User: Fold Protease HtpX homolog from Streptomyces reniochalinae.
Amino acid sequence: MARHSRYVADRGLTTRMVTTMFFIGLLYVVLVGVLVVALGNAWPLVLVIAGALFVAQFWFSDKIAAFSMGAREVTPQQAPALHGAVDRLCALADMPKPRVAIADSDVPNAFATGRNQQNAMVCATTGLMRRLDADELEGVLSHELSHVAHRDVAVMTIASFLGVLAGIMTRVALWSNLGRSAGNNNNPAGLLLLVVPLVSALVYIVSFLLTRLLSRYRELSADRAGALLTGRPSTLAAALTKISGDMARIPTRDLRRAEPYNAFFFVPAFSGESLATLFSSHPSLDKRLEQLRGISAQLGR
Assistant:
């Protein structure tokens, strides 16, 4: 957590982030090790690609995520209400102001990116700003800024990257092996073609489950920290209820376009009841509202 931030610290979140990164790192080592053994003399290629992708993900993940979700940075003159809310929250939390952006989308949502507070960005969609009043918008932004203060945005980005890396490196492994097999009939390509995809699939499944468990907890933690910072959990609850209800009215095409980025969003966008809802990156609406009601009762006492 940032040194001077007034957001409530969450030891449970910190413990889960450290644990997730430990197991993600262990999976990364296992994946690279299997590919090095499988590729034989081509192992330097694996290490170079893995290292290059990891560095690129760490330094450019926030820009890639913002670009993918259509975020464009705006000035205080272009979005005075949005900047004003962020200014008030940053002053209240005693934290550096992140860059402020807007995404032209009717899907009502918000997200934060950035590997640290110095290069963080908080973004709201045009659909969100149109549907929420000033207090509700401030509640959502307080939730998103808590992700920046707790630094769980960077952890989620790096953790999610391993699944992508597993798929890319598997393709490289298979391509390299097939190339060598063409000139060497004695190469046991059949076995490698079976082992490498199986290991990569296992790595993807485990990393997927780890990131989902962390993601659900971090959303509850952000709700709690954001509500305690503003002292108005009811406005955050109202925003959650309003956004979740309006999500059903969004065209399926727009929801499907937003679904890949659900782990970053304030509220997940689902195009219908499916298996994806069982493995949602967010806790259920009822659970989030129940926590906020508890915080209201706590503040009332």
